[in-house]
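Sorry to interrupt, but I need a hand with the structure work. Could you write out one complete protein record for me, on any chain you like? Just paste the record in under my message, thanks.

. . .
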Amino acid sequence: MREPNDLSAFWMPFTDNRGFKAHPRMFVAAKDMHYTSASGHQVLDATGGLWCVNAGHSRDSIVKAVQASAATLDFAPTFQLAHPLAFEAASKLSMIMPEGLDRIFFANSGSEAVDSALKIALAYQRARGQGSRTRLIGRERGYHGVGFGGISVGGIVGNRRQFGTLLAGVDHLRHTHDLTRNAFSRGMPAHGAELADDLERIVALHGADTIAAVIVEPVAGSTGVLVPPVGYLRRLREICDRHDILLIFDEVITAFGRVGKATAAERFGVTPDIITMAKGLTNAAVPMGAVAVRREVHDTVIDNAAPGIELFHGYTYSAHPLAATAAIATLDLYREEGLFERAIELEDYWADAVHSLRGTKHVIDCRNVGLIGGIELEPRPGAPTKRAMEIFHRAFDEGLLIRVTGDIIALSPPLILTKAHIDEIFGILAKLIASVD
């Protein structure tokens, strides 16, 4: 007979299930900057959960709002019906988006937000009489969630190889990672704006009139913190404009203060046509994703549709009442505590700490922007990824939560952290990196 907490029952995502279940590491509580492990020791969160707890854990105002909402309206459909919280959440979100991106479509995750954005792009092209524009362009090393649309435009090989034929009509830009010229860049790398010109190659290959949209992460996160070169995003915007192609920014990781502004679009001064979001939208209290769409794109789809449903797309839980409540409370908290501004205030201190690891054994690059940090390690000969994973496990045991992807340590702490927390994070990391073979 199975025990209620039988570890074999849960097939864990993106996990070495055999390794974890032989040596489980679990959390049982969280508050502000710390988790509590099953053994009772405190673990400093240097990853914001999974890039998502931007305002710190179990914040009272969010918790109380969700509790009250659950007792009042547990669920309401948004197919041909609605509830006021959905409109309030959309309005609040639209107010912090770049000018003109004020039409909001709700999903339940970043993956769903990306697939929604891709479908909206295709629907827009058809609605304006450009039905031949069906091609979608992603980027090598890009991560856009795990839906078939997202992994098709994504460029992380490990996320694609098991799943056979993906979406047809997809191509990929070159990635921007260049250790030869840009290692140890502080903020945006100086070299690489010209890599955006790879879009011209793809246009020449397929024809501009076949391309619906280009999707990129302003800062690529899951592939290992790749910060855009100076001028790269602006050049990509210019090429899209020249060929009448929609530009989508996947901001599931970068939105909500992570780079010091509401969006990376605002931080870098480049406005796309569509932005995808999730994670920090609700401070991870309730799953939610969103797509912010330029008004012209929205209106073209709506105004050119036959009477009735204009976009045949949506989710049972789009704008779920608890998620909408969590989003409203979270957006209010960000504003009241000035957390976006706090990221900017701490950015230099954070950058100094990230780059303090330069010269540490095994470290071949350090990179940063906002309150994001990436430390790239030299792969262990014959055993790539093993060195970083060993540090990940040792860090947990030392009371520090980090994230590793390949041989890269990725850091994205809650925006409520202090300089003392930064000192603690990098003190532990320096010791652990130096201690492994």
Q: What stands out?
A: The chain has a mean pLDDT of 97. The domain at 7-59+338-435 is CATH 3.90.1150.10 (Aspartate Aminotransferase, domain 1). The two ends are 43 Å apart (CA to CA).
